[in-house]
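Retro notes - structure team

What went well: the batch runner handled both jobs without manual restarts.
What didn't: labels got mixed up in the shared folder, which is why I'm recording both outputs here explicitly, each with its sequence directly above its tokens.

Job 1
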Amino acid sequence: MEVIDEVASALKMDRDVLARSSLKAFLERELRCIEAEIFEIGSKHGVRSIFELDDKLKKGEVREEDILDDFQELDYLESRRDEILAAMKSLPLQ
């Protein structure tokens, strides 16, 4: 018996309902954490997205060597956020 089956049985819940609810909760938690990190980096540089940070770089308002780590991290985080949002859309409804 799988863990999800054991937990569903202990909670007297349908296995599929528990699985969907668990996935939804996991994805929502991950999304909140990622959005918090994006906000932190954005606040540090006065931007809301990788595009705004890129604009600042192109305008010479910031130097590449000063923001490179944050730029790469922000790019990764925004990509990860998009993946999570896509996964959330693919979850079947109740």
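Job 2
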Amino acid sequence: MKRTISAMSGKGVVEHNRRTYIAENVDPKRTPLNIEYCYTPIEEAYHHLFDEALAEYNEKQKRKDRRIETYYEYIQRGKQEKTFYEVIFQIGNKEDMASGSENEKLAKTILDEFMQSFQVRNPHLHVFSAHLHMDEATPHLHIDFIPFTTGSKRGLSTRVSLKQALADQGITGEGRSMTERAAWVQREKEALAEIMLEHGIEWDQKGEHREHLSVLEYKREQRTQELAQLEENIAQVQKQQLSIQAVEQIEAKPLPLTSKVAIAREDYQTLVTAAQKYVVQKKQEGKLKKLLNEARKTIAELKDTIAELKEKLTAATKELAEYKSVYTKLHTKELEQENKRLRNRLRTYEDVISRNNLWAYFSKSRVKAHTRDEAR
């Protein structure tokens, strides 16, 4: 059995994660199957993590305007760091790991084991809210965390920093093509894949939405190999350069009564061979250098294209997640308000009819029609 792994950036709507309100894509009958691993209000989590460092920082400030009253609000107002991050993990999709299917329990078991070990793998990502949802199309895991680093020489000794938190865990980026967060997500996917394998499921990576990127990376690898081969060929050609010393040892003897000289047949053949090799080597070296330059240019172009596509993919994924989250939240509130208004109106009419004993004047068909008109 093979299944894909999804790791998406979430908007971090804790009310949705905790089911404070029920969105239209949620099956309320299955909500009791959800798991809440932990929840702490984010302000409280910030107090727990940073109050001690904040007090030390403020004590060192001689000017009152440089003191920080509330670190959470300070980060919230700033532009350098986010107050927290959310990542959503899912195995497979609604076709092969759907809620209510025979694979539902397997998905739940794997995601549960993954969550149980998440904090151990990530000591610098403080999880303040984590929920496993079994009441939507496919089981999935919401993890909300605050990235922090300790022993900082700048600002608070313990402060918010995703990049440094991941660096403290031994994760570094590789430029635009592989940021710290992308490298971390890849490592978490690998950890999830190991747990899946223990339960007889292989990681199917073809669904990573990276097919085009994979082709480009394959081409880049091919060009890199070609470049290595070309450089090796050039080295071999250079080693085969004719020996100047051997040619210099050829002795030319002057012919009597003429300006011409004579050399031995062996020496003549050596000169001819050397000249032929020289011409061939020069042509071959020129051709190889041209191919080498073209290969280097192609590799550089492929690197730029891959980096650009990865940026677009990340931006599109983030934008889609934001749209889905905002749409769900807004649409749900509108429906709830409309339903509440209709229910209140219907109860009012029913009370008036009951108080005045008027039910006898309404047939079932008229009552239903009247109810539909009011609902509109």
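One thing worth noting from job 2: The chain has two domains: 2-208, 211-376.
We'll revisit the folder naming next retro.
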